[in-house]
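Fold this complex.
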Amino acid sequence: MAVRRLEAAALDALFGALRRRGYTLVGPTLHDGAIVYDELDGADQLPIGWTEVQDAGHYRVVRRDDDARFGYTVGPYAWKRYLHPPALRLWRAERDAEGGFELLDDAHEVPRYAFVGVRPCDVAAIAIQDRVFMGGAHVDHDYQARRAGAFIVAVNCTEPGGTCFCASMDTGPKARAGYDLLLTEIVEPGRNGQRAEPVYLLEVGSERGEELLSELGGRPARDDEVAEGERRLAEAADKMGRTLDTHGLADALRRSLDNSRWDEPAARCLACGNCTLACPTCFCNTVEDTTDLTGAFAERTRRWDSCFTHDLSYIHGGPVRVSLKSRYRQWATHKLGTWMEQFGTSGCVGCGRCITWCPAAIDLTEEVAAIAASAQARATRRQARVAPSPETGKGVGDAATTR
Amino acid sequence: MLQPPADRPFAPPPAVAAPDLDPMRTVPFRVAGLHVDNEDTFTLELTPPAGHELAPFKPGQFNMLYVFGVGEVPISISGDPDRPGVLVHTTREVGAVTQAMRGLRIGDAIGVRGPFGSSWPVEAAEGRDVVLIAGGIGLPPLRPALYHVLARRERYGRVMLLYGARTPEDMMFPDELAKWRAMFDLEVHVTVDRATGNWRGNVGVVTPLVKRAPIDPRRTVAMICGPEIMIRFACQELARRGVSPQDTYVSLERNMKCAVGLCGHCQVGGHLVCRDGPVFSYDQVERLLDQGEV
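Structure:
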């Protein structure tokens, strides 16, 4: 499918076309000093001319000198809020006259969302949650219905943020699959006090996306326009705020459960759970069973949970993961290591939210790099001690006795 | 290309999350039997509602049991897998849900989801010696395996049960234990942490029983259930006796909310205990259990 070039006004046409098809539109908008996702009425509610500055434990929205619609990366919200809501009633039940109870028929309509402005890291995050909730023997029915109904308008990133490392995780800055439509925003710096209007390169990822094309206007993009988009995305890959060497990382983490380096993030961590709530792939959830005052009705509610709570691992007698160190270690080793064993993919997409929204400014890339380096040093030391020394021809110890 | 006219909205029917076969929906069973085993443990016999066929289970599997409005907990099945039509669960009163469960009366409803999880390797163990090692409330999850083996006794070599409890009064299934001890082709060794009354048997933890048991390491398949600390020591002792970790099976206990691999609560390293366990071969989990807090 050829790339098309659209004017900024095409976004209004896109919103209209999606609304006519019955979708509830959700996209980024400025709210309380942050760019969050919310239901939008029109493209004019996008954070036009805004960007943000992000660093560990730091987030500020600031003005741009152009009218870019997507001139920022990701904020505190993730799309999981719509596909795997923070609280969801799973079922209701009613007592019957014979001391029993029955589950009430609770088939419910789920909203059909069109997500506008899904970044490549988040497109990858949705694919990861697809594996978690739909890839195993048991499927999450509510997630499956929401996912089937969702239309995804992805937007490539030409300007990575300060905590971004999608290039390291191989999820961005260009989306490869998992979208219905894909936009690349091209905006020139303002001139003579004139704020420039952006233009868009549009790629189609599905039949549903293609079906909308005729309503969006525009024209086929010229080769030089396509090349300019590619150039900006290639540049973006070199401008990531963070990097993470994932080579051998899962294995290094597996061998590092007893590493004392975990003490450092544990000493700063507040166990607030922000990282897990902001993370677009964290899926842990709990259920609450309640009754009404009469005791005749009961219901079960599913809520987001976090591995930083004591309750998550509680069994009679106490939690399995008592120390903060063990809970931070669980989160980091799960995200970048054991997730692979459980779901066949890494649990990290490099969006940087956990770094930005950590009140203690703990940087996941820094912590796991230190752990990996320490594991490497330990392996090297072990090798040196096992290898025969050149003078005596004898090793100091063997692998079985050296730790 | 299909193009809806702009003035006539094109709205496909909304997506619907159907309740059918939803793994989170519980089925209201009835309490058909209720037996107090000792001070804080009890056994429930449950029957399915009319029209609901009871799914067969394998020894070592568990169900999620729900008390109306109170909550839901994972409980191992303690009954005979060859006995159709009734589910048997034995548990200890340790929290709000199990407390409410003990307050149930015959005819009351209780929600059941399951059976879930991996099982004891009773089929793979055919032709081998079977050593069952239980601590305290760890005996009920092993009982279905023992029933299975005793019902097909000729297919196995030596069969041994090593069981430890806190006191003689805390011992589970004392009548059955007496029956099992009287069987000529089943060796039963029991011990208590603390002797009370006129106890004349072994005193101490289970590990010394493992040390003294007539185990042929090459022929043995061991199945262990109990407190995690007891599991670790028993496994270490078996390893010293020469039983390989691949022939040593343990059942792990973790917090569970969904039992179907979707809630994240029961992780042990790369394993989801509800999906990959609760029964693991010891080589799968040894490193993680030795680490602690995993």
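The mean pLDDT of chain A is 93.
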